From TrEMBL:
It is found in: Membrane. One of its GO terms (molecular function) is transmembrane transporter activity. The lineage of its organism: Bacteria, Pseudomonadati, Pseudomonadota, Betaproteobacteria, Burkholderiales. It comes from Caballeronia concitans. This is EmrB/QacA family drug resistance transporter. Residues 1-447 form the Major facilitator superfamily (MFS) profile domain.
């Protein structure tokens, strides 16, 4: 529950400020579009520093790193709330990103090391549900706080949560060290950081209407080169900053491959839905945020039956069948229009929340189902890095898909129409559907020890 709370705090912080950007821009005296710097600085910092979370935990101990990360994140939240200029705010967001990069991966690592295989499903379910909830309730909560108070309280909310989390960490988390003498892979850290930053920033630029294409091309070239170099380095290094050996485990490799495409698809939805409701359908920010709560309701409803479903059918059938349903539910959003009854909209969003919750939890649990304890540190760091990358890429894919819709209908972003979002959701749904292909290669008994499917089948026999 402690790690789940920090996961919620980090993901909420990444989404809640979206509706507050106009008010923040007025406070800083800048154009609202310039406020994207605060979001981008945070996401890029996460992508850069997450890979070293495993090394830090092994070197300094789980409690030391986890507690320090919570303290840094909380202190940076106070700095964000008290800044008066955009550069100072961006700097505070970078510091906050450093804390977040260490906080969630190390906390999850502590849970993975302490949890037996047969309890992994329940533990992962508890940890991961905030990752689904925060992006959904972030916009309406941010809209409410911004409307009836000040945007600064968005960051002050982290203070009591951070203090409670720090006290619980000191009380309940052991300061376990796996390899205190492990050397720091500086070359791997630089190469991975350059690859993540350049590729994510290039994707973010492509989603803009005034994308500087020469710069995008240069960033992609640098990112690809750094990515290839980092892959070769990590495979050859004796003590790499991110251990890739877990990719030899079939279930982990599939969850990182096809699973990443699914996460990209569902990460695009929280970006597109508020825009569709506000810009395409003419709703205000608060009403739009309330509608997205239907996704949240679906997420929570599925949590009640996730474990029984996994025990009854096993990972492979659930991931394939539910993966198709989740992709189709995203594509179904393309059928929504301003004239669509709100009850129908709520039903579609609720169904999407059900399927994506089941898929999200199953993928995150399968990731570590067969990973040996000795490889948990590297697997956790790699998983967290890819998770953060897919969230950033998902938003960029949503923006790019919307631009494709605008281009197909022959107008620009200054006159976005509801049909543009229809094209965007079809593209996002297709991305999710492609991710299912990789899941077909899973063995029939994949993760049976964790899901309990083998025991269920034997008991019926």
């Amino acid at each position: 529950m402690l790690v789940a709370a920090t996961f919620f705090m980090e993901n909420l912080d990444g989404t809640i400020i979206a509706t507050a950007l106009p008010q923040m821009a007025r406070s800083f005296g800048v154009h609202p579009a310039d406020m994207s710097l605060g979001i981008t600085a945070y996401l890029l910092t996460l992508a850069v520093f997450i890979p070293i979370s495993g090394w830090a935990a092994d070197r300094f101990g789980l409690r030391t790193v986890f507690g320090s990360a919570i303290a840094v994140f909380t202190a940076a939240s106070v700095l964000c709330a008290t800044t008066s200029t955009l550069p100072a705010f961006a700097a505070a967001r970078v510091l906050q990103g450093i804390g977040g990069a260490m906080m969630v991966p190390v906390g999850r690592l502590a849970v993975l090391r302490a949890t037996p295989k047969d309890g992994l499903m329940r533990a992962i379910a508890i940890i991961t549900w905030p990752g689904l909830v925060a992006p959904v309730i972030g916009p309406p909560l941010g809209g409410f706080i911004t409307t009836y108070s000040s945007w600064r309280w968005i960051f002050y909310l982290n203070v009591p949560l951070g203090l409670i989390g720090l006290l619980l960490t000191l009380r309940y988390v052991d300061n376990v060290r796996e390899d205190a003498k492990r050397r720091f892979d500086f070359a791997g850290f630089v190469l991975c950081g350059v690859a993540c930053v350049t590729l994510l920033y290039a994707m973010e630029l492509v989603g803009r209407n005034d994308a500087p294409w020469p710069l995008v091309g240069g960033l992609v070239a640098v990112g690809v080169a750094a990515g290839v170099a980092s892959w070769r380095h990590l495979r050859r290094a004796a003590q790499p900053v991110v251990d890739l050996s877990a990719l030899k485990v079939k279930t982990f490799a599939v969850a990182m491959g096809g699973g990443s495409l699914f996460r990209i698809a569902i990460s695009a939805a929280p970006f597109l839905l508020p825009l569709m409701f506000q810009v395409g359908f003419g709703m205000n920010a608060f009403d739009s945020g309330l509608l997205t709560l239907a996704v949240f309701a679906g997420n929570l409803s599925m949590k009640v039956v996730t474990t029984p479903v996994m025990r009854r059918f096993g990972f492979r059938p659930v991931l394939i069948v539910n993966g198709v349903i989740a992709a189709l539910s995203l594509a179904a959003m393309s059928l929504l229009a301003p004239s669509t009854p709100k009850l129908v909209i709520v039903a579609v969003l609720f169904a999407s929340g059900l399927s994506r919750s089941l898929q999200f939890t199953a993928l995150n649990t399968l990731s570590f189902a067969d990973v040996p304890k000795a490889q948990m540190s590297g697997a956790s760091a790699l998983s967290s890095t890819l998770f953060q990358m897919t969230m950033g890429v998902g938003v960029a894919i949503g923006a790019i898909a919307l631009r494709i819709g605008e281009w197909l209908h022959g107008h620009d972003a200054h006159s976005i129409a509801p049909e543009d979002f229809g094209v965007a959701f079809l593209i996002v749904g297709f991305v999710g559907l492609v991710g299912v292909i990789d899941l077909v290669g899973l063995p029939k008994d994949a993760g049976a020890l964790v899901s309990g499917h083998r025991k269920e089948r034997d008991s019926r026999t």
